[in-house]
Design goal:
Length: 455
């Protein structure tokens, strides 16, 4: 049957340029062939959907959606969209999608050849797939692949990963606003919510988790034991405690119990427990965890840290220099200088002072107030308190945490902060706190937040 289908296709030059070579694979949204592009003299991949043989119109909808999504993508690890056209093949109408031909072999092919992947290899593969998913999830609305499995992931001899077959791809708008409930995916790799026609950002993480199980054991995830609705792989696979805990969280049956998205999953894969468990000497902050709530208390810093002292004295010196320059400027003005020119000179000078005065305000707020940061699974509440007065700022807990990032607090950008970044409804947000704490203490606070978020 396969040879018959191949012969029917390969007898023609598609779109007057593509000569079919052989069959690469097939799925619900058509068959994919290796072909030779006579114009560019390069091999390409062509996915062909025969309209006459479609099981239903949903297949056509999925195929057209794949074309639309792929035409928007530009990522090293996703074969680039090249062409789309209609053709008549052996008397039947067909749609043809042309992409770059990705190098490497499918992960299922690697397993079939007898290769079993170790923990380090699995982490390397996971990192690359998560980076692809982060790229997809950064779209507005985010893109969900919905069919992460070994057959759709290619691996080269130099351990480069490529993600293919976007026939099940979906954006979150169609899943939430339009309310479509098409069930797609592959048994054993499909997240439980997909059986209900649902998908969220964490859905692709489940597919990644089951793929890693297959690579580490060589066994189909559907054949592994299940305990309390969750795949029990500990008896078959022996990984480090940290990687085991990370993998178990990917495989949680309920999406709200998994990592919220690919960015969080990658952060937690890289998470360093040793930093989180070591409180630096002379640390000022206190951290408490009670149930699902993490509280960070930062007392008044005043001049207790090197960063606060350095910023204070450099700021004073800078302002004295500005004052001296201003006096010199006034002395250079002649007695007959017009009031307009005097006012203009003063105005230019005041504009120049806006930045240092803003820095002084930020410095005062950071070191003279007591700060309390309360984080739970839903929100981050930042309370600043001084002399009994409380100022509350609330922001949604954001999806990525950078341990230390530059913050323009203080002259000459001499301080850093714990910076929590993320995205809500397409809007990029950031919340920064802990300015002027010593660098090791900032790393410790960020690691403790990561530890709380990852577990």
């Amino acid at each position: 049957m396969r040879n018959t289908t191949l012969n029917k296709v390969s007898t023609e030059i598609l779109n007057q340029r593509y000569q079919i070579i052989d069959l690469l694979g097939e799925g619900g949204c058509g068959k994919t062939y290796r072909a030779f592009d006579q114009q560019t003299q390069h091999e390409v991949a062509i996915k062909i959907l025969h309209i006459d043989g479609m099981p239903d119109w949903k297949t056509l909808e999925l195929f057209e959606r794949e074309v639309k999504i792929l035409s928007q993508l530009n990522h090293r690890a996703i074969p680039r969209y090249l062409d789309f056209f209609r053709a008549t093949i052996a008397g039947n109408e067909a749609l043809c999608l042309v992409q770059e031909l990705a190098p490497g072999r499918t992960l299922s092919s690697w397993i079939a050849s007898g290769h079993i992947f170790g923990e380090i290899e699995l982490q390397q593969i996971a990192e690359q797939i998560l980076e692809i998913l982060i790229y997809l999830q950064d779209f507005t609305p985010p893109i969900i692949h919905r069919d992460i499995k070994p057959q759709n992931i290619l691996l080269t001899g130099t351990r480069e990963v490529y993600l293919v077959d976007f026939g099940a791809v979906r954006d979150t708008y169609n899943l939430t606003i339009a309310g479509s409930s098409t069930i797609v995916g592959t048994y054993g790799y499909m997240a439980p919510e997909q059986t209900r026609g649902q998908a969220v950002l964490a859905t692709d993480l489940y597919g990644l988790g089951t793929t890693l199980l297959y690579l580490g054991s060589g066994a189909d995830p559907a054949d592994l034991p299940v305990k309390q609705m969750k795949i029990d792989f500990r008896s078959r696979l022996k990984f480090s405690p940290q990687f085991t805990a990370w993998l178990e969280k990917l495989l949680e049956p309920f999406p709200e119990d998994r990592y919220i998205n690919a960015s969080t999953a990658l952060d937690c894969l890289h998470h360093n427990e040793k930093i989180a468990d070591y409180r630096p000497n002379n640390a000022l902050a206190q951290i408490f965890q009670e149930g699902e709530t993490l509280t960070i208390i930062i007392p008044q810093i005043l001049l207790s840290t090197k960063s606060s002292k350095r910023t204070f004295f450099v700021t004073i010196a800078f302002l004295l220099v500005l004052l001296a320059l201003f006096v010199v400027k006034l002395e250079t003005l002649s007695p007959d200088t017009s009031a307009f020119m005097f006012a203009l000179s003063l105005w230019n000078y005041m504009v120049f002072l806006i930045w240092p005065f803003y820095s002084i305000f930020t410095y005062y707020f950071s070191v003279m107030f007591r700060h309390e940061i309360i984080i739970d699974s839903h929100s981050l509440t930042h309370v600043a308190e001084k002399s009994g007065k409380r100022f509350v700022r609330k922001a949604i807990v954001l999806d990525t945490i950078k341990s230390i990032s530059s913050s323009p607090a203080g002259l000459l950008f001499m301080s850093h902060c714990v910076d929590i970044k993320g995205e809500i409804s397409g809007e990029h947000l950031s919340h920064c706190f802990g300015r002027y704490l010593n660098f090791p203490e900032q790393r410790w606070i960020a690691a403790r937040i990561n530890q709380f978020r990852c577990h």
